[in-house]
Amino acid sequence: MKNLLFPHRFQRIGWVLFAISMVIGGYILISGNSYSYTLNNIAIIGIIVVAVLVTCSREKVEDEMTQHLRLNSLLVALYINYAVLILCSLLVYDLSFVTVMMYNMFTVLLIFMAVFRYNIWRAKKGADYEE
Hints:
Elements (H helix, E strand, L loop, with lengths): L7 H24 L5 H19 L8 H28 L4 H35 L1
Helix pairs in contact: 1-2, 2-4, 3-4
């Protein structure tokens, strides 16, 4: 089976660019600076592209356990994302739902990043405990 993951160095680059994109996105969110379409596009495209770089890059040790954790983390992220989306569709109405859908562009990747990193950390902690 062909592995479609990016090389590990892309993950390092992605984390740096992810932090920059999140700062830009946070600035837009806090300042309400919605009139700057260029800045909005930079933040949106930046967060999506670098989150894909981080989530789809190899780990230093990419074995069957890592692939298993990656697949399980993706499924958990999908379940959480769509549970939250269903809940929001029941509780949020009108134009506010457009905002919910805008944030929904990022949530699958962000939840996956968090769950996968947690699972990797837990697996490493368990391996250290066994030694």
